[in-house]
Every structure is written in C-alpha cells, then in structure tokens.
Amino acid sequence: MSLKHEIKEFARSQGADLVAVAPIEVYSDYLAQVRDRLAETSADMRDYMIQPEDMSFFERLSSPREILPDARAIIVLGVYAYDETAVYAKTRNELRGKTARIYAYYPVVRQIAEKLAEFIEKRGYKAIQGQSIPLKYVADRIKLGTYGKNALLLTKQYGSYVALRNVITDLALPPDKLEKFTLPCEDCRVCLKACPTGALYAPYKVNPKLCINPLTRRQNYIPPELRSKMQNWISGCDICQEVCPVNRKLTVRQIDLRAGFDSRHHASHRYLDNIERTPHLTDILSEVYPDVIRRNAAIALANIGKGKRESLAALKRHIVSAPEELRDYYLWAIGALEDF
Length: 340
Known about the structure:
Blueprint: H1 3-13, E1 18-22, H2 28-41, H3 57-61, E2 73-80, E3 98-99, H4 106-121, E4 127-130, H5 135-141, E5 146-147, E6 153-154, E7 162-169, H6 190-194, H7 212-217, H8 224-227, E8 233-235, H9 239-242, H10 291-304, H11 308-319, H12 324-338
Helix pairs in contact: 10-12, 11-12
C-alpha cells in the first residue's frame, strides 16, 4: 500500500468524506479574481473580515510556500455537514434564529486535519493543517467539486454542504486526477434570484458588502435597509444553498459528535461558543451573549414578526442594560415590531 493510499484511508477513518491531493503552485488566477472582485464591488479588507492593514493576506493565501517553504503537496479534506439537526423549517414560527449549517462542522474537519498532520509527521515529514489556501478554488481546480453560480463549491455527493480544510506537507504526493462534476447550472438562476440583499450580483460573483454571511459575523454597522433583508440568520446564511436544485436532493447524515460551536476548534466560533444551532432569539438578547449575536437576534426578531408580544417584551427588557452601540438595533427592532 502506497503512503498516499495510507494517508487517504487514515483521513477517511477519522471521518473525512472527501480527500484529494493538489499540487503546490502559486494560485495567481485566484489572486487576479480577488482583485477584480474588490474593484467591481468597492469592497475592502474589512468586508472580508480581514484587518485593513493586512493587505498581503490574499497574496499569502495564494502561495502555499508562504506557509511551508519546502511544501510539495496539499491534501484537501471535506466533511459533509448536512445532518439530522439541520432541518430549519419551523424556526420562524418558534422565534428561533438560524446558523449556517457548515459552521458546526468546522471543528470536525479541523480535528481530522490535526490528526492527519500528526499521522504524516510520525512518518518523518512536515505537515501543517489549516485554512491557509483558497480552499474552494483549489478544490475546483483538482475537480473535487466545481463552482456553482452562488460562488460556492458544489460536490457530486454532498452538494455545497461541505466543510473544508487543508494539510500542507513536504511529502511528495502525486496530485489526483479526478473527473469533472458537471453541474446543472447553465440555465439556472435560482440562487441569484433568491439572494435577498443582491449579494449575488452576477453568476459566480459575490459582493461581500451585501452578503448576509459576513454581515452577521463582523462588527461593522449594518444599515436599516440591509437589516430588513437578513431574515432570521444570526450567523452565516444558507439561502442560496437552500434553493439550489443540487442540494434539494441530499439526504441528512448522522450527527458527528464533534459537531457544534467551540472557539477552541475554529476562530469563526468566537461569537458562538455553546450556542445551539437554532437558538431561541429572545434568550440571546441577554448580556451574557456577545454583542454581535445580540444585535443579530434583535434584527431577526424584527424580521420574523410572529410572537410580537413576546419579542417586544424581551427587547424592551434588555434594552435597559444594552450598550449604546446595541440600542440603535434594539430601538429599530422595537419600532419595526410595533409597526408590524
């Protein structure tokens, strides 16, 4: 058995649903696409949730040897994330918020990548795990999946509900040669029409200034005209995935016991520690939760409208102790509910 085969079998034994090897190269085409997107949307680094002074972020991301100078291969890992708790049909009626389904599986794929890196290191090679390459772009390049018009990676087996991570190693592994997955996207515009903020401004192109996913995750001010379009998402957004014909054919997987929100296992969970995937919105208005989540809960309550009496009472109770930057959102939500 070759070492490449051993590596793949080990990754699968740890729970990886997708494993493929990509070559080491500078992904200059990706960098050009990022620059075009920045120019077309007038977005800046903060819209991508990157510190404004870190202008070299995308250059590092497109060059794997910035992470490991003697790197010779990239192992891309994917975990299917649509599980038995990911059916969000009744959340609006129950005054619950929604989180993007893949987020709960970032800790799963990270722990798999950590174990795989250890597996490779025990054989005398270097291995660094992370999200240190343009994962969707690389996965598309090696045909592990392909871009849909919603600018997300679509896979044949698991649609777009795949949490990705990579391991960069100095072990020489031959790249995989996979068959391209042909998408039924050519005459379809369902995802573009479904995006409530117009963030999908063209096929395969997303404006990060308008996308609900980063809107819910960054601290930037959210103008009222965008708040009213955010529905009941409190972290991330799956709207363009929910309407996708490819995803509508999926079946749910069993829950991986490692799934959930834990900032120790993923940086994007810093606002989500110990929050369930569809939390009751009036509960997370409390000061024990991060301000970003409280803000999103207030917006979601205003957008749902149902349970107006309960929502109004909770907002009015918590606005008393809310910090100044939150009061604007609470007042807006109160006003929206009173006018409902």
